[in-house]
Amino acid sequence: MAATAVCPECDAEIEVAGVEVGEIVPCGECGADLEVVSVEPVTLALAPEEGEDWGE
Ligand SMILES: [Zn+2]
Q1: CA pair distance 46, 55, nearest whole angstrom
Q2: Domain span at 10
Q3: 1-56 confidence digits (pLDDT tens)
Q4: How many A from CA of 25 to the centre of ligand 1?
Q5: I need a surface site. Which of 20, 44, 49, 56 has the fewest CB within 10 A?
Q6: Global pTM?
Q7: What CATH number does residue 33 fall under?
Q8: What distance in angstroms lies between residue 46's CA and the mean position of ligand 1's atoms?
Q9: Is 17 part of a structural domain of the chain?
Q10: 56 CA distance to ligand 1 middle (Å)
């Protein structure tokens, strides 16, 4: 079951077959980390930046 979604950052089409909600997929065009927020249809959103060190 092929599926594509559009990168919200650069509008590139990304293959997202078999992904699940909450999964992070990288955009092959701009390299952004995209979170799968819906699967019917597949919708991508920019994943929040990993902020492991909260600066101290
Ligand atoms: Zn992109």
Answers
A1: 23
A2: 4-46
A3: 568 999 999 999 999 999 999 999 999 999 999 999 999 899 999 997 766 776 76
A4: 10
A5: 56
A6: 0.79
A7: 2.20.28.160
A8: 9
A9: yes
A10: 32
